[in-house]
Design brief:
This protein has about 260 residues and is of the alpha/beta class. The protein folds into 2 domains: about 5-210, Alpha-Beta Complex (Spore Coat Polysaccharide Biosynthesis Protein SpsA, Chain A); about 220-260, no CATH class. It has helices spanning about 15-25, 60-75, 90-100, 125-130, 165-170, 185-195, 220-235, 240-250; strands spanning about 5-10, 30-35, 45-50, 80, 85-90, 105-110, 110-115, 145, 160-165, 200, 205-210, 255, 260. Helix 1 links the parallel strand 1 and strand 2. The longest helix has 15 residues, at about 220-235.
């Protein structure tokens, strides 16, 4: 499995994080999908694709699909998706390639470590900092562990890989999702429904560079309500329930039948 490409989505607020990633992935074809409403700057990437925001916000699902098409046009048969905030560990590329050789019919998910502010990004420092997020399985390096059906909602688009054949068979991400939230879990549910294996890839470590966040993400409240309703219509359950319940406790939203809506002021 020698023909691969790394696909990344980015906009201006994450540009410096992206540049760190591009430096770390020199020698591997890179596709950057620029998702802001401005023009992309000069980037050290083999392909730069523009997917501007839609009426409801950033088009993350459409951007990943566009990135996959651009990577395939470069000759890639293995697609490695990395969030713009993430830098790959020194073994990520090889671990994903080896896993794809063993499981060409699967979607592959490596562990993600969240770095503190001003963390060093050299290989030795990254190895020393490795502490995968506890919410997801992280088998020992070199171990491949098949996900149980109940684990599919743990899929993150921060770092994953799959062959172009699997990508085409699933149809990529549902482009009806715009703005923040829902499209990752929707993709995972589509994988589970199609019987596509999901494999936890030990040692395919990615490292998420620090930036300020809020929990729950108040700036995305309306996106979460809109995309959550779309998801519920499709799958008969709501995603992101932890955030929704936090918004509800704060009095911002209220339950209505089987869903949520903004609370009356």
């Amino acid at each position: 499995m020698s023909d691969m490409a790394i696909v990344t989505l980015c906009s201006a607020p994450r540009l410096e994080h992206l540049r760190n990633q591009l430096r770390a992935t020199a020698g591997v074809p890179r596709v950057v999908v620029w998702i802001g409403d401005d023009d992309a700057p000069l980037l050290d990437a083999e392909s730069v694709v523009r997917v501007p925001p839609g009426a409801a916000g950033l088009r993350l699902a459409a951007a990943r699909n566009a990135g996959a098409r651009a990577a395939e046009a470069l000759g890639a048969r293995l697609l490695v998706f990395l969030d713009a905030d993430c830098v790959p560990g020194p073994e990520l590329v090889d671990r994903y390639r080896d896993a794809a050789t063993q499981h060409p019919d699967a979607v592959l998910c490596g562990p993600v470590t969240y770095l503190p502010a001003r963390a060093a990004l050299d290989a030795a420092s990254l190895r020393a900092a490795t502490a995968p997020h506890a919410a997801r399985p992280a088998p020992p390096a070199g171990t491949l562990q098949r996900a149980e059906p109940a684990e599919y909602p743990l899929f993150w688009s921060l770092s994953f890989a799959t062959t172009t054949a699997v990508w085409r068979s699933v149809g990529g991400f549902d482009e009806r999702y715009e703005g923040y939230g829902g499209e990752d879990t929707d993709f995972a549910f589509s994988l589970r429904r199609a019987g596509v294996p999901m494999i936890w890839v030990g040692g395919a470590d990615a490292y998420h560079q620090h930036h300020e966040t809020s929990s729950p993400p108040w700036q995305h409240l309306d996106d979460i309500l809109r995309n959550g309703a779309l998801f519920a219509e499709k799958w008969a359950e709501w995603p992101m329930t932890g955030w929704l319940e936090a918004f509800e406790r704060a009095g911002a939203i209220t339950r209505e039948n089987d869903g949520w809506r903004r609370a009356s002021v």
